[in-house]
Design a protein that fits this description.
Largest sheet: 6 strands, antiparallel
CATH class: Alpha Beta
Number of helices: 6
Order of helices and strands: EHEEEHEHEHEHEH
Helix content: 25-40%
Oligomer: single chain
CATH architecture: Alpha-Beta Complex
Structural class: alpha+beta
Number of domains: 1
CATH topology: endopeptidase fold (from Nostoc punctiforme)
Distance between the termini: 17 Å
Shape: globular
């Protein structure tokens, strides 16, 4: 049990985009995309994905909103949301990691080539390039929240399901999540 517990949220989604469908074909995971949030309303989530919802080829560090953008564009999108208990120190370390990405977001790009590395179990690390689960796992590892023997370049979304101190708070259509999740989460201290 964590003393002085705070919460972060891991949001896993399946949009139905061509990349999402392709990842589902080549991996054994229902949800192809992962994001991290401090916000229980999910209006500010952090990940690597489409910078513009209408352009699948322009990717990088993104601040997402579960009720807008790509999730609004793909209205049949499904999600799985974990609430993860963390210590105050872990929470601060994670916020510091994300603040670095926010302050330099124009320097980061999507690591399309790195996705092939997962397929062939060959880590492909490119400076300032990430795919979603690589980003989420790396910042969680650096914040002492998630532990893995694998390099972040080889961690798929489904491996993030193994995080400790998690509680599933919602699984289902994104367009139904807002009210259901709001009712399931107690306000943070």
């Amino acid at each position: 049990m964590l003393v002085d517990c705070r919460y972060i949220y891991l949001v896993f989604t399946r949009t139905g985009s061509w990349l999402s469908r392709l990842i589902n074909v080549f991996s054994d995971t229902k949800y192809a995309h992962s994001s991290v949030s401090f916000d229980s309303n999910f209006t500010k989530m952090y990940s690597f994905g489409r910078i513009k919802p209408e352009n699948p080829f322009w990717g990088g560090f993104v601040e997402e909103n579960l009720h807008d953008g790509i999730y609004k564009k793909f209205s049949r999108c499904e999600c799985l949301i974990y609430k993860v208990g963390v210590t105050e120190e872990q929470h601060l370390l994670l916020q510091e990691q994300i603040d670095i990405f926010i302050s330099e977001k124009e320097k980061y790009r999507y690591n399309f080539i790195g996705l092939f590395g997962i397929l062939f179990n060959i880590p492909i690390k490119r400076q300032k390039h990430y795919f979603c689960s690589q980003f989420v796992s790396e910042i969680l590892i650096r914040s002492n929240i998630f532990y893995s023997e694998k390099a972040p370049e080889l961690i798929g979304t489904n491996e993030l399901y193994e995080i400790e101190n998690k509680e599933i708070i919602y699984e289902g259509p994104v367009n139904e999540s807002y009210q259901l999740v709001s009712n399931a989460i107690c306000p943070q201290a």
